[in-house]
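Posting this for the archive.
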Amino acid sequence: MPNRIKSVMPYLQQDRRTFLADVGWGCVGMALGTLLDQEARAESSVRGTQVVPPRAKSVIWVFLSGGYSHLETFDPKPALNKYAGKTFDEIPLENPLRSTLHHKRFRSVPAEEVNVRDVYPTIYPMQVGWSPCGASGIEVTHWWPHLGSCVDDLCFVRNMWTTDNDHAAENQFHTGRHRLDPVEPSIGAWASYGLGTINENLPKFVVLGGPTRTDTRQSIDANYLGPQFSGVPLAIDPKNPLPFGQRSAGHAAHQQAEEYALIAELNELTAVQYPDDAELRARIHAYELAYRMQAAVPGAVDFATETASTRSLYGLDNDATRVAGERMLAARRLVERGVRFVQVFPSDYGVWDSHQKLQENHTKLCASVDQPIAALVRDLKQRGLLDDVLVVFCTEFGRTPGLELRGGGKDGRDHHPHGFTIWLAGAGVKRGYVHGATDELGYHALGEGHYVTDLHATVLHLMGLDHRALEIPGRKRLEIDRGSVMAEILA
């Protein structure tokens, strides 16, 4: 018997789990959210069938909470200015409220007769100008000057739609399920579940700036896949990037190393007794990963090695752009180190929700994100990472073409799930390209459009996964959960 174990034999008379809790450094809860089971440690797909070589090694998923206006960002509509102040019935265009699409793509918790969402018929004009950008001539509003200069590297999808008209749509956008339905794992969790790790010292799924609230935890959660596949929130603070991720004061590194060595030996003894215990294997790997993360995570969010020009590129020298800039820069550093999926919330919960003062709100918010997100695209490109990294830029829904009237409203737009715009850039997608469209008023996504799980399917496909093969025994996935790959945008 090893001497280290002999010296602690008295402790083995107590409950083994209590003993491990006593000698651990308080990170068990964190580690269980990032543990690697034995089969998932290979650098290949382990649960999803790889039907094509992966184009994207990693994904940076940028989510703007609250619902930015597609009309004042990436899908400008001249008709809104032409018919401003008129109702849908007073113009020579089809009234979108009478379209069959209006109810086909809409679910509400209140009964229809008391639901006032999406019925504002007075057209509200554009609140900002726009112009064609880049060699591709893609129209972007003037609130995005930095991103406008990057359009030749972007792929816009202008015919997204979803069904929840309230902010539970934030969860729906990530899980594919309406709040009235049973919860499904998030897109980041499916990527984590389906793929092995590239860097065993870091989690496969990292979250920066979120979840935005406790009730948006579903957006990063793994649900029935198990907590080991959920997103791991990190702070942009190299001194304390992870809750309970530092040794306590007075606890020397060599002491911690000895404790973990002891834990490993105890686990090995138990593993001999229970060789088929998958939970035990997962726990062993959890301790191993937790110990490695303690050294690796701080370096990933430490910008001391970044040049002054890079820090300036991301806007770290400007109070207005610093928060978003730090999160974008950290995302780049994490994918450089092999993190598979980085989910970034560059702004706070719901701040893009412009029921009133849309012009004031979006002017400020676009300025806070425009430079940092453009910097991420440029930085990835100049480092050669845009060939291996996929960037997704999205929100939970758009904003209504009609003026919101609730509460005496006079300068805002309501929630609008019927048609809106997201964009992608990088590995495996066309560049300088626009896919799909909304009608002349920006109301409905034309044609079949794309429900949110089409985006999920496309992302997983680009990571080399057969999204239809991702299954859990005993868990029935609906056809809408699977989505369809947006083949038209693939390079």
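The chain has 15 helices and 13 strands. The first helix runs from residue 3 to 6.
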